[in-house]
Each structure stands twice: as C-alpha cells, then as structure tokens.
C-alpha cells in the first residue's frame, strides 16, 4: 500500500506548494479540501493543515471534525492550521498588533524536538498572517520563537501534534525543507520511497490490473502530458493502446509530421489523421475567440470520435489529466471562474460511454517531466513549451484563413528556431508569434508596402497562472525581426509584447 501524507486545504494560496515540497522529499501526498475529507486508513502516515485566508475568529471560518484523526496520526498545523488547533484547544488567537508578514528569524529553538532537528539558531522563516496565537493551553509547549512572535512553533505534550505560525513551504523559509523532512521522516516515519521510478513501476502494474485485455483510445496532442500518459499506458498494455493524433491544421510548421514520427519511434500504436480542411472550413469567418474554441473543441470530438469508432470493442478513453486540474475541480471554493474556456483533448461525448483512465492525475507538471525522463521519452517532447489546444487559431486575431496560418507558421518557425539556436528556448516558459489583424505601411526597395504585423511573445512563468514578459536581448530580437520581414511574404513589421500577466494574459485571445 502506497504510504501517504494528507494535506487538508483551508484555502491557502500556498497549499499546492506544501504538496510539492513534500513530494520533492520523495513522499507521496494528496491535497483534500477541509470540507471533503478523504478516508483515513493505514496508508496515511501523517496530516498537514494548510493556512487559510480566514481568521479563526470569523464566524464562517473553516471548521473540521478533528476526532477523525487528531492524536491518531502525526499532525502539523501551518499558520491557520496552527491557530485553529490552538483556538479549538482553548488557546487564544487575537489580531496581531505588530507586523507579522515577511522575513523573521527564529531566535529561540528547542532542539530537543525532532521537528526542529538541524534547524540553525537564527534560521530565517517567512510569516504571513494577520492573527497571532497570544496564549496556549497548558498541554502546549512553545518550541520556537522569533523576537516578536513568541509562539512561532509549538508542540502538544505527549502527542505527535505540532503547529508552526510560519510557512516552511516557501523558499524564503531557508530551512523549511529540513523542517518538513523532520516531520515526514522523524515524526511520521515516512520511508521516502516515492520516486519517478517507483511511480512508473507501480502505475504500470496497477494499469495492467485495471485494464486487463481491454482496449484504450487516447488522443495525442504533441504535448508533454498526453505523450507521457501514452507511453505509460503503452508500457502497461502494449498494442491495446490505440493513439489518435489529429492534425487540425493549426499546429506549428512541420510539427505534425515530426511529432508523429517521434511517436512512431517510441513504438506507439498511433494513427495520424489529417483533418486540416475540416477544421479550417468550420472556422471560416469566425472572429470571436470563445467561438473559435468551441468550434475547435466540437470538430476535434467529431474527428476523434470517428477514428475511435474504428477501433473495435474499445472500452476506455485515456487522458493526460494532471493533478492541478484535479485539485482545481474539487477545491475549497469549487472550480475557479474560468477566464478562457480552455479546450483540451477531452470532453467525452455522452454517446461514447467510455470509462476514463488518467494515469497522471496524481502528478504535478514537473513530476510528469521526470516520469517522462524515466520512461526514456525524448527531450524534444519533454522540453516543449506549452501550446494551446486551439493552436494558432487563437494566435491569429480575427478570422482564420489558410493563408494567414501559413504566414504565421513561417514567422513562428523563424522565431522559435532563433530561440533554440541562441539558447533562449529553455530559458523562457512559453513563446510564440501572433498574427495581428492590422496592416501598416512600410517600404521595401523603392516600393511602398501595406502589409501585416507579427507580434512576438515570450514569457517566464511557473504554471501559466502568472507570467512576466521575457527580457530577450535586443540583438536577438533584431535578428528575428530582420529574418521574418525579409523572408515571410506578407509581413512588414514585427513588434514585441512587453505585458505581464496579470493584467494581460499570455495568449492574445
Ligand atoms: P492565458 O492566455 O490564459 O494562458 O494567460 C495561460 C496558459 O494556457 C494556455 N491556453 C490554452 N490552453 N486551450 C489550451 O489547451 C486554450 O484554449 C488555451 N488558452 C490559453 C496558454 O497557451 C498558456 O500556456
């Protein structure tokens, strides 16, 4: 049985970060909202309470039934989690009068407690709270303080329950990882055996058990997630995995042929379908971005469904869903408002009635890459920038024509090749060219031109939620601009997007 840590989420912006740190320590963990408790069985080695935007003193503050696990499993309360435990045990939590936000140092540390093993005196920690624990119940003992926060960390005597009012998961807490490791290893007794290799091994064997001799269809997109999901399934069930890779005519230049080729080299049973004309004809004249997404989503399902029906007796649909999508859909607040209706390979039409298998639905993006590496997947696929499902359709502002797609593909290829040869491709998180619905005057030789504008976009990001525009060198931008204007007929002007997200978004549509 896979041992695990349960992280109960009270709505903090840092909850996912706690999970990532735990996983970096090779311990498997799951995030569950405080109001949807999971089963607490023998596989649970310990529990972590996250922080929260709420104050424990608020009437509508998150509440939880502690009797299910308190003092039965080791427990670490972080920030709100610590204050909640203190508050419900008879301690006092009040609004803090001094600033408890930002860096602080642990002036007092009781090193006899294994939670604080190897944490140096003066260790820097990150505080972020409006309330503070002013009094602790008798059975509590203070085990660390800063010069202003007396109860920086506490222990409930005779138990394995701890609370800390700082955030060990953020990198500003310089010894936060050590503290988490102390909790996981010394206090919970975790064996730190959750690695990409062990994930691959156990996933393949559980997929075999689950799927038996059943057939699975899976739509490949050329992206990291669907590729890794496919290779895992392929390792488990071999030719019973039927992959479908659709050319919607909106991919990067030559990408369909190249990616199809690498899939075949990986031994996947993959069928490439040229549906360019079907997509382009359905998109003709459509300018509204959301409408484009809907049409592409619908046509994709139609094409995929036709192809899937040709596989006899298929029972399962494989998907590359990853953990952040799962957490999002069951989060404390429910799915957050979508700004753009993201179409991904997905959306199962009712009539297909297939069961869904999602081998990556417990992994974060960086873990998917590590698993991909373990599986021997080529860096060309693993190191790929994210690329939106609707592809170039949302990078051509306004209506889409085959001619505009061809122009954008050429310009984009020059841009991306230059990023690769200059070493910038791996330094930016995502890059692409955008075709603007603007014509401007230029001059070439003796002739006046009136042609289109290409915008270059490159951003740094961790997860696409926020992003900064990348500071590409002027010389590189100059080279790319020259090459595009000199080689791509129809373009006489290149601009660079210097907006960050928020308030802008990464894509223009
Ligand atoms: P935005 O433009 O919302 O993009 O800042 C954030 C990330 O999401 C990608 N994106 C999409 N991906 N279908 C997708 O599969 C879509 O409709 C879509 N729209 C945006 C975008 O490329 C970036 O990585």
TrEMBL record:
Claim: ATP-binding is one of the keywords in the record: yes
Pathway: Purine metabolism; GMP biosynthesis; GMP from XMP (L-Gln route): step 1/1
Keywords: ATP-binding, Glutamine amidotransferase, GMP biosynthesis, Ligase, Nucleotide-binding, Purine biosynthesis
A Pfam family reported for this protein in Swiss-Prot or TrEMBL: GMP_synt_C
A GO CC term attached to the entry: cytosol
Entry-linked PROSITE patterns: GATASE_TYPE_1 (PS51273), GMPS_ATP_PPASE (PS51553)
Residue numbers binding ATP: 221-227
InterPro entries linked to this entry: Class_I_gatase-like, GATASE, GMP_synth_C, GMP_synth_GATase, GMP_synthase, GMPS_ATP_PPase_dom, NAD/GMP_synthase, Rossmann-like_a/b/a_fold
Superkingdom of the organism of origin: Bacteria
Transmembrane segments: none
Catalytic activity: XMP + L-glutamine + ATP + H2O = GMP + L-glutamate + AMP + diphosphate + 2 H(+)
Group of enzyme by EC: ligase
Assembly description: Homodimer.
Role description: Catalyzes the synthesis of GMP from XMP.
Name of the featured protein: GMP synthase [glutamine-hydrolyzing]
């Amino acid at each position: 049985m896979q041992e695990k840590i349960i992280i109960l989420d009270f709505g903090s912006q840092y909850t996912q970060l706690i999970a990532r740190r735990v996983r970096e320590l090779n311990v498997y963990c799951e995030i569950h909202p405080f109001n949807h408790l999971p089963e607490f069985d023998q596989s649970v080695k310990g529990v972590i309470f996250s922080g929260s935007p709420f104050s424990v003193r608020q009437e509508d503050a998150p509440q939880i039934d502690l009797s299910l696990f308190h003092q039965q499993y080791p427990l670490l309360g972080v920030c709100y989690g610590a204050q909640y435990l203190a508050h419900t045990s008879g301690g006092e939590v009040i609004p803090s009068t001094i600033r408890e936000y930002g860096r602080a140092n642990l002036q007092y540390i009781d090193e006899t407690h294994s939670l604080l093993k190897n944490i140096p005196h003066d260790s820097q920690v990150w505080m972020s709270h409006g309330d503070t624990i002013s009094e602790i119940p008798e059975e509590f003992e203070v085990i660390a303080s800063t010069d202003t926060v007396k109860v920086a960390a506490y222990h409930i005597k005779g138990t394995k329950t701890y609370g800390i009012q700082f955030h060990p998961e953020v990198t500003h807490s310089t010894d936060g990882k050590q503290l988490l490791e102390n909790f996981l290893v010394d206090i919970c007794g975790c064996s730190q055996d959750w690695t990409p290799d062990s994930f691959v091994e156990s996933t393949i064997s559980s997929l075999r058990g689950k799927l038996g001799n059943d057939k699975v269809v899976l739509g490949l997109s050329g992206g990291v997630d669907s590729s890794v999901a496919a290779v895992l399934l392929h390792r488990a069930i071999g030719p019973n995995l039927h992959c479908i890779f659709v050319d919607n005519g909106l991919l990067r230049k030559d990408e369909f042929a190249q990616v199809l080729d690498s899939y075949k080299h990986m031994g996947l049973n993959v069928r490439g379908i040229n549906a360019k004309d079907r997509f382009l004809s359905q998109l003709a004249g459509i300018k509204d971005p959301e409408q484009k997404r809907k049409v592409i989503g619908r046509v994709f399902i139609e094409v995929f469904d036709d192809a899937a029906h040709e596989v006899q007796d298929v029972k399962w649909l494989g998907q590359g869903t990853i953990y952040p999508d799962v957490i999002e859909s069951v989060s404390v607040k429910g799915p957050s408002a979508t700004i753009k209706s993201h179409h991904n390979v997905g959306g199962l039409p009712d009539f297909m009635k297939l069961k869904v298998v999602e081998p990556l639905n417990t992994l974060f993006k960086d873990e998917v890459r590590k698993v991909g590496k373990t599986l021997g997947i080529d860096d060309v696929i693993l190191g790929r920038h994210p690329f939106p499902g609707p592809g170039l359709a949302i990078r051509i502002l306004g209506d889409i024509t085959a001619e505009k797609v061809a122009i954008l593909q050429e310009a984009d290829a020059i841009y991306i090749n230059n990023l690769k040869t200059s070493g910038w491709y791996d330094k930016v998180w995502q890059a692409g060219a955008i075709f603007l619905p603007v014509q401007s005057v230029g001059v070439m030789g003796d002739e006046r031109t009136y042609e289109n504008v290409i915008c270059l976009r490159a951003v740094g990001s961790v997860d696409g939620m926020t992003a900064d525009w990348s500071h590409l060198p002027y010389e590189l931008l100059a080279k790319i601009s020259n090459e595009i204007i000199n080689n791509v007929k129809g373009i006489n002007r290149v601009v660079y997007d210097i907006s960050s997200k928020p308030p802008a978004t990464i894509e223009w549509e």
